Amino acid sequence: MAKTQKRLAIVLFNLGGPDGPEAVKPFLRNLFRDPAIIGAPTPLRQFLAWMISTLRAKSARANYAKMGGGSPLVPETLKQIEALAPLMAERFPDREIRIWPAMRYWHPLTEDVAQEVAGWQPDETVLLPLYPHFSTTTTGSSLGAWRKAGGPETHTVCCYPVEAGFIEAHAQLIRASWEAAGRPENIRLLFSAHGLPEKVIAAGDPYQWQIEQTASAVAALLPEFSDWQVCYQSRVGPLKWIGPSTDDAVRQAGNDGKAILLTPIAFVSEHIETLVELDEEYGELAQESGVSSYTRVPALGTAPQFIAALANIVAGAMSAPTRLGPPDGQRLCPVACPACPMALKEA
Question: Residue 143 needs a FRET pair 20 to 30 A away by CA distance; which of 104, 202, 207, 287 works?
Fold first, then answer.
């Protein structure tokens, strides 16, 4: 009898999004009751999640209606899985491979996927976040949910902010978008990332440092864009957030007489923060601010270099000496970022 192939499970973590208008409110409630998002005591956090989801549901439904009623994030992730699967089969022809999407706040929920993967009984499991930059609010939260649900874990990638293919994919899309726009002159390249409250960074979260490393690495491949800036979008709530904010950066570019080329540096899929916030809201703000040209670079999606980078990351994680870490198994973040998962592992 032929030897049964070993099983390799690959799990892609992401935020998730509502799949229809009726899912918007429970999606928001799941998001805001996560202690990684709102660090209040449980009874207060549950109340705040109910209140915020209730107050924001109507406007959120209106925004999702612009995208067909739901988020494109899960369909985009499925396309990435479809593109990644043949590369993994080529890399590991001796294994039976399955790739799952695992979403934190809506279906397919991380907890449900953990049980499904466990039932498949893989010999190895690679957990790969589609958050390239580690934060306790994203990858940390997804890992916590996976482990609480008893999901299998053999190799876990915490981040890949300067992985070569990831950086090159961003640079290629930025240059191609600029060329498609007619190569506007006097341009400022804005690297827009999702923001975080300052207190999260002050507690040692490495996210902002990693975003800056990505932006610097991408800019190094684009010498034609010497004027560039990192900025942060999607602020909610009364807390002070890291900056500069993307809206302030857009206004400043208008004041400086600059055209804008804006790339969603931390998002690998199109969703509400890119299709509505960046395309519509900041596009309108750019026009109001006198910006002569506003070009938004697409998210990485299924860009071949990005998908190849994911395959390299999985292969690197499987050969790394540590279960948890960047693809090469080495700590990346400085000691000033004690919430780096490698720092926590070393402690």
Answer: 202
